[in-house]
Amino acid sequence: MRIEFDRNTCIGMFQCVDEWDGFEENVDDGKADLPGAEETKDGVFVLEVPDGEEFEAEFSARVCPVDAISVFDDDGEQIV
Question: Do you know which PANTHER family this protein is assigned to (predicted)?
């Protein structure tokens, strides 16, 4: 499973941070960070979700008020 985070869309509500430890609050920028993620040419951050953290990662995407987070299964199908 992989998670994609469009940081430019993020409005800094930090609900994702509350739901999954994969995200961190960046108070200076007023946005969340996804440490360890690789940035694509489009400015989207992509990270493979560690085993055992799938539920939390998926829930972090579900609570994002601006849909800045997407989750994909191993076949590339979007879950959230």
Answer: FERREDOXIN
